[in-house]
Design a protein that fits this description.
With 145 residues, the protein is an all-alpha fold. The protein contains 7 helices and no strands. Helix content is 75%, strand content 0%.
Length: 145
């Protein structure tokens, strides 16, 4: 008889996100995930394959949920120049949460992000290869660490 899931994958993934967020990848055991997700070991492996695959799904889901909200907020802005202000607001929130160093100037980081985004959009039109674009992306992420 084939395995049939009796839980919502997105809800289970959301619960896994919370565990990974709290304990980190290395600090999270399969038992932690099973307990938090409210499923048994077999269901976890059947639905997600492995801890690594579940972590990748959790990262994608977290990215989708957060990016969608950020894009909704950006879409509400009437003046594109307010994008910088949006980034300042988000960076300050992340600083309060401990996700971005408080020693970084939120306005300067925001200006740099806007410049990098504009640069990426221009360069991605064909003048730079994937390796160079990846290097720019890494710099942008370093601004947010």
């Amino acid at each position: 008889m084939p395995w049939e899931k009796n839980f919502d994958l997105d809800i289970a993934t959301d619960k896994a996100i919370q565990v990974f967020w709290k304990k980190g990848y290395e600090g999270t055991s399969m038992s932690d995930l099973i307990d938090a997700m409210g499923i048994n070991k077999g269901s976890l492996y059947n639905a997600f394959g492995s801890k690594d695959e579940l972590f990748n799904r959790a990262l994608l889901r977290y990215d989708q949920l957060n990016r969608q909200e950020a894009l909704k907020q950006l879409n509400k802005l009437e003046d594109p120049k307010q994008v910088e202000d949006f980034f300042v607001t988000i960076i300050k929130k992340w600083q309060k949460l401990g996700n971005v160093e408080t020693t970084k100037n939120a306005r300067e980081v925001a200006v740099s992000l806007v410049a990098l985004i504009i640069g990426l959009r221009v360069l991605a039109r064909g003048t730079y290869d994937a390796e160079n674009l990846e290097a720019i992306k890494k710099q942008a992420l370093q601004l947010l660490s």
